[in-house]
Amino acid sequence: MARDESSLTVPLVVEEKQRLGRKLEDVETIYSDSTAGTTSSFKTVFHGLNALSGVGILSIPYALSSGGWLSLILLFVISIAAFYSGLLIQRCMDVDSNIRTYPDIGERAFGRNGRLLVSVVMYAELYLVAAGFLILEGDNLQSLFPNMGIEVAGFEIGARQSFVIMVALIILPTVWLDNMSILSYISASGVLASAIILVSIFWTGAFDGVGFKEKGTLVNWHGIPTAVSLYAFCYCAHPVFPTLYTSMKNKHQFSNVLIVCFVLCTLNYASMAALGYLMFGSNVESQITLSLPTHKLSSRLAIYTTLVNPIAKYALMVTPIVKVTKSWFPLSCNNRPLSLFISTAFVVSNVTVAPLRPFLRRSYVAGRSILEYDSCYCPPMFMLHEDFKSSQKIRI
Fold first, then answer.
1. What is the pLDDT of residues 149-182, one digit of tens each?
2. pTM of the entire structure?
3. What is the pLDDT of residues 327-366, one digit of tens each?
4. C-alpha to C-alpha distances, 144 to 59, 141, 161, nearest whole angstrom
5. Burial code of 145-166, b = ≥16 C-beta within 10 A, e = fewer?
6. Domain 54-395, CATH
7. CA pair distance 103, 114, nearest whole angstrom
8. CB atoms near residue 340 (< 10 Å)
9. Where are the domains of the chain?
């Protein structure tokens, strides 16, 4: 009798586990579908431009002054390599519809250990970049308003940390947005800010007495490594590409979106680099806004507009981390308060680590230039290489 009971019970237990497993998969699928396939190609262009352009535009003249005029060739080479890597990401996701995130590509390329490595590197990079945005805003606002500070319950908070908290409160509603279509309007503001900065700096050079008198050097071999790292920094948006791809209505247009984004951003970067180098030569600062005459209206407009870029980019850059965190709690797809709590907790954690300013400032650049090569360019190429080898074996 006991044997009969066990024979009846075991299949029921197995079926129950399978049923629960299917339910969990259904919840994850519902969560993925609820945040995908709603964004037009036009709006995705704004996301792509916002991800690629932004903070890097301020350091591009310094990169050119470090490497010389011929280093611009490296800018175009890096942009082509980054563009091709973006196409490989699209191809990886076209090959297997189950691939929805960058770690999925890492798993196909390197196995489960590869997925873990890519996940840790990519999410750590994005987290440090997000913290870097808050630090950058805090530093810039402190330089404009050094005597600002707040006191809460008897505790005095310094100017920099006060501004970090204020900026976080401004950014927080954008992180709450789950709809990439709505978020595109915030990305559009970042794109507009980059255009205003370029026009303002051109105006400063052409009409406000600075001029374009510097000739610069043809090539500076000692500065090439610095130039290459800063050029690569400008194109570190690959962790966001899978999110943009899955959010599109017409995914076949993703390659066209990449073409538009990379062409416009590269022209923008090259123009800014040439303008800054012609205006200030080898004396250009690490951020071109530090070289501008602050008594000119156009210069002030450029300086104040730079404050918009990190705010506009923050939500887009942290979307992959927030999404994967929410996927750990399947009920969050139908529980708005829980979803808001997860997003808010992420921003609060970023504000908490912002006082680690010296470490995070170094990690901000290192995380976006060095780790970009390993975690963002390699997985798509290795995955397609493995698929190619598999197809060759099948043919044999």
1. 776 766 777 778 888 889 999 999 999 988 888 8
2. 0.80
3. 887 765 667 788 889 899 999 998 988 776 555 455 455 4
4. 20, 5, 14
5. eeeeeeeeeeeeeebbbbbbbe
6. 1.20.1740
7. 8
8. 15
9. 54-395
